[in-house]
Amino acid sequence: MNRLIHDFALWVDTHAWSTALHESYYMYNWIESTHVLALMLSLGMLFLIDLRMLGLALPDVPASTLARRLNVPMLIGFGVMIATGLLLFYAIPVRTSQSLWFRIKLVLLLAAAVNAWLFHRRMRAASADWDGTPRAPRSLQVGASLSLLFWALIVICGRFIAYDWFDCAARPPAFIATVAGCIDGQVQF
Amino acid sequence: MAPSLPVPPYPRTVAVCAAIATGLWFALSDLRVDLWVGLLPFFEWLETTPLGVIGKTWGAAFAVVQAVHLLAMAALGGTVLVADGQLLGLVFRDRPLPDLQRQCDRLFDRALVLVVLTGVFMVCAVAVKVYYLEVFWYKMLALASGVLFVYLVRRPLLRCDGGSVAPATRRLVGVASLMIWFSVAATGRWIGFSG
User: Fold this and answer.
1) Do A178 and A153 touch, CB atoms closer than 8 A?
2) What is the pTM of this model?
């Protein structure tokens, strides 16, 4: 599996555009900045919705109204995050695919997506009788708390990708090397 | 009865013009350079403080604080987007203006405190490096403008006379706020690419 991922990353790395993107100071940094600034749209809206469910934000706005109205800007934000995220991976495929933090981040993203899906299903099933109350029912509060936790960890992992503590080139301990996907005798990092 | 603006219109105009003139004079005079040179010992001292030592020697702590800084930025940006979105008539057009603005203000204040606290920690760790970065000072200027704008212009303006602000003024405040906070975040991210 790790070898397959490494081969794929090596193949992406042969693309001229990948190298060009990596080596372009302004293009790469603009994409990176867009990725970070779009947090204000995606996570900003998500935080408001989650905090509203916990009774910590905008108590006067009905919860379902808030969730419905902020859903579109939030999804636009996440669209930008995904697009720029893919470009960032495309620019540095080999190192990123073997980053411990990138891999944890992907797992957490999956967990956050499942949690969001469950949250929406529960919110639709719940009737409007709690809408005006400061706090959502317990099951939605749990979902909102999990969402906040997952996203906090995702941002932390995202930030950690920039650091080289466990890079394959730094020969990490065997367990970490396996999880990060380091290949014995690899020549490209 | 909702409060009116604390300062009457005429002195207000004079005060704003005086502030702009002072800013221009400061930007063009030698005082700016003198102040910058004078601040070097302070920035060197920041690196020797416990915060500076922790940030320098414990890479993981620094990275976690950076992440918290980003999370707080997302919260701050989110409230700014919703509050300004309402001023521009993009979201919550049907909600009363002062109510939603006040609720956003409360969140904004908390996010700002968190952003500034984590920001101070990050500066302590790399104080002398950022001292020599132009973009760091641009960010500090943008941040100072943002804070002054929020507490001296935006809030008094939107709260006076029960929030019955002319639509054009309201939109202008929204656009100005978006531009300022975008600049703060963008120049902030660029600090990491410089030096």
Assistant:
1) no
2) 0.92
